[in-house]
Amino acid sequence: MSQAPLVTDQIPDRIPAPRRSLRGHPWLTLFSVAIGVMMVALDATIVAVANPAIQQHLGASLADVQWITNGYLLALAVALITAGKLGDRFGHRQTFLIGITGFALTSGLIGLSSSVAMVIALRVFQGLFGALLQPAALGLLRATFPAEKLNTAIGIWGAVIGASTAAGPIIGGLLVEHVNWQSVFFINVPVGAIALALGLLILKDIRAEKAPRSFDVPGIVLLSAGMFCLIWGLIKAPAWHWSSLSTWAFIGGAVLLFVVFALWETRSREPLIPLGLFRSVPLSAGTVLMVLMAFAFMGGLFFVTFYLQNVHGMSPVDSGVHLLPLTAMMIVASPVAGALITRFGPRIPLVGGMLFTTAAMIGMSRLTADSGTGTTSLWFALLGLGLAPVMVGATEVIVGNAPLELSGVAGGLQQAAMQVGGSLGTAVLGAVMAARVDNQLPGHWAAAGLPALPPEQAKQAADAVAVGVPPVPRGVPAQVAETITRVAHETFVSGMGLSFTVAAVVAACAAVVALFTKRGANASEGGGVHI
């Protein structure tokens, strides 16, 4: 009697592995969002190089040129947290794609603009669309990557931002010099098209089960108004001076609006920022750490460009090349920092990073007008080594300690903290520089045997020296011009040294704050919540 074949005989030796779709693939998601975020980070610095050409071509005033930058920064800072909430509500994929499309379109329209008013208006819209991108990118990374790989992903993401920000002056200088100022904006169109195509193909709509279903409109209005008053007050403080009633009216108004916002959030049924988030000591510490880090970094870097260009006489392209040690170290160290944070937690890398940053700031406080490339490169490289773990670790601490359904708001909070810190650092260190110049320039001027200046000319001379420009009148003898240049550069370097000393103290305080951070308690919620 024949035996019936076993069922197992009918099963093939190998079962083909299921084919993995491109959509939602973690590393491809990182690649896709990195291209979009790179465009925004590049734009933050590339436009500064084009401003003189825009001013000349469109007949813009100095105030107009300032608005080209300030309009963008204001819109970006004011909208970041609300943009994060939009991503939490409607999905980070949709928010990211809308941001990419809008940013690229407004960039192209700026390049076609025939008036400075049109450029300023479009720069505001560009900032609003840019605000949609960064929190959405972090939300996508948080929800796509498993917890054990999230820090590595954020490390690569941070390296892209750092490299793009530092590459802006180099790329901008080359484009303006060899093409035209419009090309600085036109370049975003093909980059945006590539990012949009990749996003449509790769990004997956990922939301938490408890995603918000409504909007806190009064909260959005109060927070946006408060952020506007704060950032605008900080932007205008150098021109209005810190003793001005206008400066403190805006800063005081911002504080009042934030207090009213906090009171409203305790009553709102579905608040824009649940204040319970800040019961997490690591999340609060991470937010403060981002503010302090940005204060020291962006405030200090503000003077480095003047030092390289106005004291050492470099072109914008050359000065960008001299910052490559900073960029290169951030590119190399950010993924490494992500791996270290994954293994050991964020506390030790964050404290170490801020101590390295402190040491770099102390080193740069001792630069002189004659310091060579080797010396500056050493401190720039050390600064990049210190910033890398902070950019990665503080981001993970903030986003990872927030619930998944608030990852967009947390991403917006992280970016807003950077904007506030950077604006505060530039304003405060600018005031330190101005005070130092006002205090020392008259003495240095007299000690060099130069004739005393009338009050109005003395004020103009101090304003020029505060950015490293020697106030040499036309037609003066070469020997006198050389003396004025030496006095101006020595006074500027003295002010820069004091500013970097203040930045070093702030960085040291940030190292203390970093002691209160720890790994994201909610990071394990990501990496698999798909709809």
Report the structural category. Answer: mainly alpha
Give the integer mean of the pLDDT values: 83
Rg for CA atoms: 25 Å
* Uncertain spans: 1-19
SS summary, helix count? 17
Query: Distance between the terminal alpha carbons, to the nearest Å?
Result: 55 Å
- Assign a percent range to the helix content: over 70%
Sketch the topology as an H/E string, one letter per element: HHHHHHHHHHHHHHHHH
Question: How is the quaternary structure best described?
Answer: single chain
Largest sheet: none
**Number of DSSP strand runs:** 0
DSSP strand (E) fraction?
A: under 5%
Shape: globular
Features:
531 residues, mainly alpha, MFS_trans_sf, disordered N terminus
Write a structural description:
By secondary structure, this protein is mainly α. It has helices at 26-58, 62-90, 92-111, 116-144, 147-178, 183-186, 188-202, 217-240, 245-265, 281-311, 316-322, 324-344, 347-364, 373-400, 407-447, 455-465, 478-514. The longest helix is centred in the C-terminal third of the chain and has 41 residues, at 407-447. It is globular. The chain crosses the membrane at residues 27-50, 65-83, 95-114, 153-175, 181-203, 215-235, 247-264, 285-308, 320-341, 348-367, 379-404, 416-435, 496-516. It comes from Streptantibioticus rubrisoli. InterPro entries: EmrB-like, MFS, MFS_dom, MFS_trans_sf. Residues 29-522 form the Major facilitator superfamily (MFS) profile domain.
